[in-house]
Amino acid sequence: MATQRVVQLVRLGRMPYGTTLKIQNELVQRHLETREQSVSATMGKSSEFQQQLKLKNEHDEILDKLILVEHEPVYTIGKRTKEYTIEERQRLEALGADFYKTNRGGLITYHGPGQLVAYPILNLANYKRSINWYMCTLTKTIIGTCRQFNIEASSSSDVGVWVGNNKICAMGVHASRFITMHGIALNCNTDMTWFNHIVPCGLVGKGVTSISQELNQNVTIEDAEGPFLKSFSDSFKCEIVEM
Amino acid sequence: MINRSISSTNRLLGARVYAESHEWVLMNENTATVGISDHAQGMLGDVVFVDLPEVGDTAEAGNACATVESVKAASDIYAPVSGEIVEVNTALENEPSLINTSPLDNGWLFKVKVQDGEQLSELKSEDQYLATIEDE
């Protein structure tokens, strides 16, 4: 490959869900604008030039981002809204959590303190134009992260990453012209009682777990970040650069 | 322009034409049936949910107007032509997997009453489309 894939790391720290959603939308928009400009600007130019433009915009900004964030307690649902009523929403908000309907795939999930949330904003044209491939690669990233903690995790037909019958990492994404948003939520030392109020991802009879629970010791987001970034860089074959 | 003459011929022959974003269009008089290509359904994986526009909505060429969900991923589908949505494939509500099993026939998404036939000249013939996905 002529051009090295590069992804810029964006650490947001602790931030409410709604603010992060705006940032994601803004970064997706930058991709789409650059894409439109490059379609007209690269007519007749070499393919290497086109490749450059996909990676960076006119301000030499790296467009592919990897957002890391920790949310305040929030329940979110995806495109499939049928089974979630106003009463259900009010019940969850009464627990002290926010509630958002989003454009991602998947059903209800919880985000909150102690959970490593990662939102890759990638143009899959720089990788492989397949959402199926993308989800498999995200899954590999999490399995590889768990392995560094000596946790044997696996994928399943229900998507997400599992330790036995318990989900350790939820996944849900949106793609628009192969630009991705939303992403993964890996439980590090999450207060797991928040999950008792919902059927995570609509899967009846399955449980949830965290890295801390599996190892029976406190593992923080900060502990998990390094292993996650290493695994992401290995699975996506990209270089991750700090801002 | 060569492209235009190929597309016009296809339109007359009732052959599918394709958008760069992997949707196909099949014309019947001035109504366009829209679906996604076999290549696209393969790249999505098993479809579990389809969010369709409503009859009476206005589709704008190049704008997102439906979503398909596969493997916990929601992907936007773009209208290849502009016009009023006159029919949607309600069979997909109960059987979204039709998109995987029959992307070019029973898995069609919606029908658009086309305002501007010129937009069809922007689309590719099946051969042209297949050539563009070869190196992906």
From TrEMBL, chain A:
UniProt keyword list: Acyltransferase, Mitochondrion, Transferase
One GO MF term attached to the UniProt entry: lipoyl(octanoyl) transferase activity
Q: Tell me the superkingdom of the source.
A: Eukaryota
Catalyzed reactions per annotation: octanoyl-[ACP] + L-lysyl-[protein] = N(6)-octanoyl-L-lysyl-[protein] + holo-[ACP] + H(+)
Q: In which pathway does it act?
A: Protein modification; protein lipoylation via endogenous pathway; protein N(6)-(lipoyl)lysine from octanoyl-[acyl-carrier-protein]: step 1/2
E.C. number = 2.3.1.181
Q: Which SUPFAM superfamilies match?
A: Class II aaRS and biotin synthetases
Broad EC category: transferase
Gene Ontology terms: cellular component: mitochondrion
Q: Might you name a Gene Ontology BP term for this protein?
A: protein lipoylation
Question: What is the first-listed, main subcellular location in coarse terms?
Answer: mitochondrion
Query: Where does the protein end up?
Result: Mitochondrion
Family annotation (Pfam families): LplA-B_cat
Note the InterPro entries from the entry. Answer: aa-tRNA-synth_II/BPL/LPL, BPL_LPL_catalytic, Octanoyltransferase, Octanoyltransferase_CS
Q: Which family does it belong to?
A: Belongs to the LipB family.
Q: What does this protein do?
A: Catalyzes the transfer of endogenously produced octanoic acid from octanoyl-acyl-carrier-protein onto the lipoyl domains of lipoate-dependent enzymes. Lipoyl-ACP can also act as a substrate although octanoyl-ACP is likely to be the physiological substrate.
Protein name, per record: Octanoyl-[acyl-carrier-protein]:protein N-octanoyltransferase LIPT2, mitochondrial
Automatic annotation (TrEMBL), chain B:
Gene3D superfamilies, per the entry: 2.40.50.100
Compartments, as annotated in UniProt: Mitochondrion
InterPro entries to which the protein is assigned, alphabetical: Biotin_lipoyl (IPR000089), GCV_H (IPR002930), GCV_H/Fam206 (IPR033753), GCV_H_sub (IPR017453), Single_hybrid_motif (IPR011053)
A GO cellular component annotation in the UniProt record: mitochondrion
| Organism placement in taxonomy | Eukaryota, Metazoa, Spiralia, Lophotrochozoa, Annelida
Q: Which domain of life is it from?
A: Eukaryota
Return the similarity comment: Belongs to the GcvH family.
Q: Which UniProt keywords apply?
A: Lipoyl, Mitochondrion, Transit peptide
> Which species?
Owenia fusiformis
Task: Keyword check for Disulfide bond, yes or no.
Answer: no
**UniProt cofactor(s):** (R)-lipoate
Q: What does this protein do?
A: The H protein shuttles the methylamine group of glycine from the P protein to the T protein.
Q: How does it assemble?
A: The glycine cleavage system is composed of four proteins: P, T, L and H.
Can you say what this protein is called?
Answer: Glycine cleavage system H protein
